[in-house]
Amino acid sequence: MLPAVNQAVKTATGILHLVKDTETKQKVIELQTAILDLHDRVRLAQSEQDELAKVKDELERKLMEYERWDAQAARYELRELADGIFVYALKPEHKGSEPLHYLCPHCFNQKKRSILQRPRAGHKNYVCHDCKMDISPVKSEPFYGIATTPRRRSRYDGLIG
Predict the structure, then answer these.
(1) pLDDT-based confidence at 146, cuts 50/70/90?
(2) Are residues 58 and 89 in the same domain?
(3) CB neighbours of 90 closer than 8 A, spacing ≥ 6?
(4) What is the pLDDT of residues 44-63, one digit of tens each?
(5) Domain boundary at 53, 73, 93, which?
(6) pTM for the whole thing?
(7) Are 77 and 108 in contact (CB under 8 A)?
(8) By the 8 A CB rule, do 84 and 145 touch?
C-alpha cells in the first residue's frame, strides 16, 4: 500500500505542478497581452506627440512670419497720393539707404511688399507688378483724380440723346 500512496502523492504533485504551470502560462499570456497593449499605446502617444510637434513648428513659423511682417509694416504709413488715391509710403525715419517708395495697398493688405513702379520713364502712373493695379494720380481741377483718356469726338455726337 505504501507504493500506492507514494504513487498517489507523486500523481497529486504532478497534477499540482500541472495546474500551477497552466495558471502560470495563463498569467504569462495575460502579461504579454498587457505589454502588447501598452506598446501600442506608447506608439500611438509617440505618433500624437510627433504630430503635435509638427503643428507647434508650423505655428512657430507662422508667428515668426507675422512678427517679421509687423516689423516690416511698421516702416510704412498709409498716405494719400492724390485725392482718394491711397498708397503705403516708406516713413522718412526708416529710409536709411533705401529710396523713398510706395507700396501697393492691395498687396500690402495681403501681407506682401510690392513696390509700385512707373512702367516707363516719363509716365505719371504707377503699376503694381504683382496684382497689376494701375494707379494714375493726375491733377485736374478742382481735385486729383484718376487719369482718363479723353474721348474722341464722333461725327454722330449730338445726334443721339
Answers:
(1) very low
(2) no
(3) 75, 76, 98, 100, 101, 102
(4) 999 999 999 999 999 999 99
(5) 73
(6) 0.55
(7) no
(8) yes
